[in-house]
């Protein structure tokens, strides 16, 4: 069938069963937007392209589908770079369409021309510059396939205006043929046998589960593996919810702000079973000190992650679900009483705690725990980046995957709030909280207009410590308390700000106001911003100081 | 240690930038790089000489595999192979030195490809050592300019590094 390039995109997105798009129009996508004018696909207009791509990212994380983004060329497209890098680091499937100047003008510094194909190469899984409309169906098919399969990631398609209007034959391919792309899905049986043997021999095993478990949907298999052989499980930030945080075998998060017991368990372990994780420096601490007595099994779909940071004894390349399916069958029951008792001792020695006095300042941990209790652990939580993010990771126990949405690899302030809107769009009817910092929220607060426009009932909990708290904590601990450029006293009145946008604003200054405010926000339809004034100089503990081993934690409050 | 990698890539726009960018971004060192078409339409071959220890080399190969346009990577350092590079040298030559230079050229089975009043261009192919040796011997006459193609290499015998059936990503599994 003959169609214009823009019409092909409508037809292709329908074929891919896309029902929402996040975007922002402009001169070089007028044809594209015109083609979508009559389509049934819902377009969400953000207030900044960064907001659009983070929303698409949140949508993708919560649904497991690819998030789709449209922007214009030049500034519209360059505004996506952070969002692409963010999605690339956390392996989030996105298909991003950017307008481009006509092919005849490319390379002439035309109005709103930017080399987005070149700029985004390092932050996409793959990208395309379309120069022939007849290639468009194949390219879109490939883009969705690449974004969603193997190790997922963002794929960008740059669309010159003349390609959008040119007519060509449209036939959407049913298969792809990408000779240079063959992700290994099944683990090697010999390796899986070796892993099962190592598990049988281990006396102090620990499962270290990452985002790969969530992406692969392997939570049930992970639970089976852990319960069958009584192996404690610690997760990364990205892995939260991949194993129920409320389970007796759960050690919570490991790494820089991980629990004392998770880090000690890894440190003293004789077998680490890394599942869909990548030994990030925030997890391992000083590498030469990391898990020196442990054998390492590493299961990951990306062969380049294996052996990148640590040497691995038993590498298994494959999809976590497929690998665990065979591994679980081969693993035999064990009790590990002594090991679990040792871990229980560490847990008793240094639990995650804080003391909220009735008449004192509100503690951030108390706010998070209250949200956890009021929502009965069932809310979807998107976070910004900073101390509040770590407290959310520590004090909200996730029972299920795809419930904790946070910028892990890139640590992008300004991610959480727009992402929470995408989460709400992907999960209508569910309770969505955005746990934000006063600093981070100000990076994309214009999206309040988006939230109000579409009546997305996200509840934003600003953990307002009047500081760039995480940076302040480092300055306090490692720079002699010289607080350089971290003071945020001069912030807007967040209640009035919410009201100005047409949302509801609430302020909390006392501990006893915390729970009622959360309840009130939940009872209020539409978006609500709660400005929780919390203790300004509260620190996140435990903490593994930079360049230290993970057993060398500063335990803070209770130490 | 220096390794010579033969990298088969799809002949698509931007593929050279993708490969070069990957090396720069991840801090891998390219010693030399030669690119050209192969017998298969649509497939180019890059010969990349890289200085790396075992562990870095493994990362180089794995990261290259992640590029969608990369089809196959072979390390030609670990198997018997023929390595060649082409060098053009413009050297000063007077009536007095011309014969001596000609003698060096013959010894190295090189060729004089341009003769001018005060200079010669010499074409020589060979491996690293040979090219270094001739350059060293010509230096006293005054080298005006040197250009090299970068190394290319083929496996010895009938075996080839052609893009085959073999699944590439799982290669480093065991
Ligand atoms: C875009 C961006 N800029 C800078 C940083 C560095 N950074 C990390 S945490 C942080 C402070 C965040 O402050 P806030 O949002 O108030 O959270 P808090 O730590 O106070 O809870 C900063 C500046 C970052 N992660 N992202
Ligand atoms: Mg703050």
Walk me through the structure:
The complex is a heterodimer of chains A (559) and B (174). Chain A has 559 residues and is of the alpha/beta class. Chain A folds into three domains: 2-169, Rossmann fold (3-Layer(aba) Sandwich), CATH 3.40.50.970; 189-349, Rossmann fold, CATH 3.40.50.1220; 364-541, Thiamin diphosphate (ThDP)-binding fold, Pyr/PP domains (Rossmann fold, 3-Layer(aba) Sandwich), CATH 3.40.50. Chain A is 37% helix and 17% strand. Chain A is built from 23 helices and 20 strands. In chain A, the strands form four sheets. In chain A, strands 3-2-4-5-7-6 form a six-stranded parallel sheet. In chain A, helix 23 links the parallel strand 19 and strand 20 (528-533). The longest helix of chain B has 13 residues, at 54-66. In chain B, 26% of the residues lie in helices and 39% in strands. Chain B contains four helices and nine strands, in the order βαββαββαββαββ. The two termini of chain B are 23 Å apart. Chain B has helices at 15-25, 54-66, 98-107, 128-138; strands at residues 2-10, 29-37, 43-51, 70-75, 81-92, 111-115, 119-126, 143-148, 152-155. In chain B, a hairpin with a 3-residue loop joins strand 6 (111-115) and strand 7 (119-126). In chain B, the strands form two sheets. In chain B, strands 5, 6, 7, 8 and 9 form a five-stranded antiparallel sheet that branches. In chain B, strands 2-3-1-4 form a four-stranded antiparallel sheet, with helices on one face. By secondary structure, chain B is α+β, with helices and mostly antiparallel strands. The interface between A and B is medium-sized, with 27 and 29 residues. Bound molecules: thiamine diphosphate (TPP) and magnesium ion. Magnesium ion binds at residues 386, 437-439, 465, 467-469 of chain A.
